[in-house]
From TrEMBL:
SUPFAM superfamilies assigned: Phosphoglycerate mutase-like (SSF53254)
Entry-linked Pfam families: His_Phos_1 (PF00300)
Binding, substrate: R8, H9, G10, Q11, T12, L13, F14, N15, R60
GO cellular component: cytoplasm
Protein name from the UniProt record: Histidine phosphatase family protein
InterPro entries listed in its UniProt record: His_Pase_superF_clade-1, His_PPase_superfam, PG/BPGM_mutase_AS, PGM_Phosphatase
GO molecular function annotation: phosphatase activity
SMART domains named in the record: PGAM
Length: 192
């Protein structure tokens, strides 16, 4: 059995500005950096060490991974966030009500089914090809939400309504099946 920690990046400038941030990028804020440091402290206190690590090619995910662990890592484009097309960088007030489904396709983005398939296939590929037993993956809120949805039927815990920055989703992986074992969220109130 393998264990993978799937983590959302730390808070970014666009998160603070309430801008739609998919394949476009913005840097971590000071709060985002501190969130990653708090998550790292949790991992260290629990004695969790990673043999391998992977991140989306987005700067916010790579920077978060580098703050979380001192381990060589690979950047994988398919771990990136949902592509919101021409809505990228626009105000979040323009988002339609959930679920988004095919809404962004008409604007050059991805459908929800495409995001779910991409992230699920990529995670399966990573875990099936590695011999490591403890893996760290840093990705994005909507990508993680769709991965969670794909594996909801096997999960032992329910997904929160909103995925907090730097929350840790602990999955076990065996026989081509992911099981969500635990969601670790941190108290960031003292840094915000």
């Amino acid at each position: 059995m393998k264990t993978v920690y799937l983590v959302r990046h730390g808070q970014t400038l666009f998160n603070v500005q309430h801008k739609i941030q998919g394949v476009c990028d913005s840097p971590l804020t000071k709060t985002g950096i501190n969130q990653a440091k708090i998550a790292r402290e949790h991992l260290e206190k629990q004695g969790i060490q990673f043999e391998e690590a992977y991140a989306s090619t987005s700067e916010r995910a790579v920077d978060t991974l580098e703050l979380l662990a001192d381990v060589p890592y690979k950047r994988i484009k398919e771990l990136r966030e949902w592509n919101f097309g021409t809505y990228e960088g626009e105000g979040e007030h323009l988002n339609p009500p959930l679920p988004y489904e095919d809404f962004f396709v008409q604007f050059g983005g991805e459908s929800q089914a495409q995001v779910e398939e991409r992230i699920s296939h990529t995670m399966e590929k990573i875990l099936s090809e590695t011999s490591a037993s403890h893996i760290l993956v840093v990705s994005h809120g909507a990508a993680i939400a769709n991965f969670n949805r794909h594996w909801a039927h096997t999960s032992r815990v329910g997904k929160p309504n909103r995925i907090q920055n730097c929350s840790l989703f602990k999955y076990s992986y065996q026989a081509s099946k992911f099981v969500l074992e635990e969601i670790i969220e941190h108290d960031f109130s003292h840094i915000q």
